[in-house]
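DM from R.C. (forwarded with permission)

"hey, sorry to bug you on a friday — could you get me a structure for this? deadline for the figure draft is monday and I only need the backbone to look sensible"
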Amino acid sequence: MTRHIIEALGKSKIIIENEKVVEVSKPQINYCPLFDHHRCVKEITEEFIENNINFRIEDFGMCTPKRQLKMKDFLAFGISEILSTLIKEKEINCAIMVCEGCGTIIVTESEMAQGVGGRVSGLVETEPIPELIKIVGSENVLDNQNASIDQVKGIELAISQGYKNIAVTIALASDCEKINKIKEENPDVNIYTFAVHTTGLSKEEARIIFDNCDVITSCASKHIRDIGDEESVRTVGQSIPIYSATEKGAEFLELRLSKIGGEKPKKTNPDIPKPLI
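My reply, with the result:
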């Protein structure tokens, strides 16, 4: 039996054991514009969350040995889509991401970046699923025995394998100082940081994230939005804005836009998550 914990769908804590949802906590966000626009869901409830997660388990094998790890590109704009494009266009050699059943992994294929990151977000804890580790490649998994999640050590693993242009997704502000130290120790390596799962960050954590990352997704974070709306070099999206805090981050956003035909027309009063926290 494997056990997986994710935070998703309104920042609810969801526990999956033996391919079944066993616990769903009350969501902190009641309304998400993405689920409204795509699924006509006006309120995120525990019942909706459980049904959605069960659908994912059945549809693409989330948290099971049948997990589909690759997915072709489609017209969307998110962190996984940006990373997928950067790999395909050889702007980066690899991305350090997180996948259920594997933990921290090195991704070098565009379709795997999309399949891993585009389908599951907010993975907090996971346990090894040998079938998935085999697909990813044991050499690309940080911890084959425990499927631990440690993005900083993932960067170190990538550097040890000779990668020079590395993207990494982080959800912890505390990782920023450690990543900066790695940058100082490896001046010949380019490390680009993408902040994900930012809902609920404190004001101090949001400040650290924005001062140290290249691309930041707003999710339902009030503090990230407050900073991003004032300081972003380039912003894409309105309901769930994605900010660039550096010129390189802005280049990454523009590259993705060029691949999907540009940005959608802006709305006067875009829907946003409720509440922002």
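R.C.: lifesaver. DSSP finds ten helices and eleven strands in the chain.
me: no worries. The first helix runs from residue 33 to 39.
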